[in-house]
Amino acid sequence: MTIKVILDANFLFIPSQFQIDIFDELMKLLNQRFEPVLLSPTYKELQKIAEKGSPKIRKHASLALKLAEKCRIARVEQRFEETHDDVVVRFAAEWRCPVATNDRALRKRLRDINVTVIYLRQRSHLEMEGNVP
Known about the structure:
CATH architecture: 3-Layer(aba) Sandwich
Shape: globular
CATH topology: Rossmann fold
Oligomer: single chain
Strand content: 15-25%
Distance between the termini: 12 Å
């Protein structure tokens, strides 16, 4: 069985910032096949950062977009009043799948609704809060 994992934009910055292969680490952590999923608003956010961010951030975002090629881009609608995090929370709850993010506020929101969260720990390895459905 293959499990979906929603990747947040900041999670795709890990390889360029900390030299960690997130796909290899996710495979070890989950101990099963997984499908990395990038929600279309996340993909658009990365494109915007790659164009308009500071030079250092643009470089990280460009590398993140390269990694995004390994993901399935899920075309989802971001409602008018929704923030980017709202979209991630809505689809994680709907699909009952883990989310990989380093955003502390988003992690708390996901844990509050019993969604498994995967994040970078001590700048060296990935860790999981909660159980894989």
